[in-house]
Amino acid sequence: MTNQSSAKALDGGWGWVIVVASFFCQFLAYGSPMSVGVLYPEWLDTFRQGKGMTAWVGSLVSGIGLIASPICSACVTNFGVRPVTVFSGVVVSGGLMLSAFAPNVQFLIFSYGTVVGMGCGLVYAATVTITCQYFDKRRGLALGIITTGTSVGGFICATFQQVLVELYGLEGCLLIMGALTLNIMACGGLMRPLNVPEYFLKQKAALERTTEQKDIHREKPPIKEESINKNTLSSVEKGLTVSDLLMSSDTNDPLSYEKNFLGSSSLVKTIKNNKHTYSKYIATTAELLQDRVFVALCMAIFLFDIGAFPPVLFMEDVARSSGHSDGTCLVPLVSIVAIMAGVGKLVLGILTDLKFVNSLYLYTFTILGSGIALLITPIANNYAALAVLSGVLGFFSGNWSIFPYVTTKIVGMDRLTHAYGILMFFGGFGIVLGPPVVGWIYDCTESYDLAFFFSGACVLLAGFSLLLAALPCWDKPKKDHPRPDIKYTSNCDKVASVA
């Protein structure tokens, strides 16, 4: 598709179909992982393992997508949005169905935690990238709509999975959820790409080099087949489709590209050619780690995810263990957390756009509020109190929506992508480690009280450390750095990688 047609496709038209398809992709992919707290008590009863060991399932399914986000983004960049979306639908569905036959928790950690988690990461990267390609001025609105799919999915699927478990058992619930998740493939079929992926461009370049080498070493004039190949190459330059490109690449030696790619000499050449890029990356990372506020933000997101994520997994078991869940509650606590997280994303995003609101202090306030709610949770003496605290924790967990604004305020727009990748790495490890640590504390004490006190202390420590590091009294007098103005651009690579 030409640049002119791509420009016409921005901010409307088929882009709204992309938004709807992306919304349902995230709804279907994240529905079960966001409401995994409903399945957690069932796994405890089925496998009779410790809470710490079983908690690895829920922590990995949410954290591994963040840790592997560079891999997911690279897959989307090289293979395209549509193939990755279709493949991710197979991965998520296969992981859910495979989990129905899990003989133990260790197998469940692989099938549900790792496989489903990687599939969700691929879905997220693909949907955000294609949305950024189709929208420019309305990009914020479009991204807000599609990312709300995770919260809506968690809200609806929590109750839905609870009903399925009662009717068909744990195995039937996972099989039905896996079958429904296959609809991601249908949504992926609607994601018409605006640009040819890099993988096919590399195939085209390799095909042209192979053809040139054959022409040089061939003494006889080219035969009719070669003229057909040349016509095919010219059609590639004029806008060849993906299927035509794959068919034309098969007419040449299929091993030539693999030999060049897998050869040790090619690997050495690649490293030498990118030596400057690697050095620049290391230098930029070192420069970021010298920033006091950025280091505090890395520590804050790590500690926040260690403490604030476990309630999503453990809240239902807390209600059951304390005797507050009598089976008459129509809305699970996990659903309350999910829907309030969606509300928090919208409200906090609106507050951040106000000129008199400092996004860094607002983010710090949400962290401190979450820490206080976690400390109060052990003294809740009824289900209504737990429901209110779940809503508060869910609302403050919506601070993910303002996290890019906070990062931009600290490091600037030029280094946003680099810094955001580092922060997501710390956040992913926090999500992975948090639930198992809380579960092990329960296994040792036979009570959630100390576990939630530990979680609240971690979150409060994150908030106070970030607040102290952000105080202006530490800085030497210098010129004020105004908040950077957001300029709309059709180049969506940076925005997609950050989102």
Q: Helix and strand layout, with pairings?
A:
Layout lengths: L2 H7 L4 H21 L1 H12 L3 H17 L1 H11 L1 H19 L5 H30 L4 H43 L1 H7 L8 H20 L6 H14 L4 H8 L4 H9 L1 H10 L1 H15 L2 H17 L1 H12 L11 H21 L5 H18 L6 H15 L5 H9 L4 H30 L3 H22 L22 H6 L1
Helix pairs in contact: 2-7, 2-8, 2-9, 3-4, 3-8, 3-17, 4-7, 4-22, 5-6, 5-7, 6-7, 6-8, 6-9, 7-8, 8-18, 10-12, 16-22, 16-23, 17-18, 17-20, 17-22, 18-20, 19-20, 19-23, 22-23
Largest sheet: none
Percent of sequence in beta strands: under 5%
Round the Cα radius of gyration to an integer and report it.
25 Å
Overall strand count: 0
Give average pLDDT, whole number.
Answer: 77
The helix count comes to 24
The oligomeric status of these chains comes to: single chain
Q: What is the helix fraction of residues, given as a range? A: over 70%
Structural class: mainly alpha
Output the helix-strand order: HHHHHHHHHHHHHHHHHHHHHHHH
Principal-axes geometry comes out as globular
First-last Cα distance: 25 Å
Question: What are the segments in which pLDDT stays under 50 over at least 5 consecutive residues?
Answer: 1-7, 223-264, 483-499
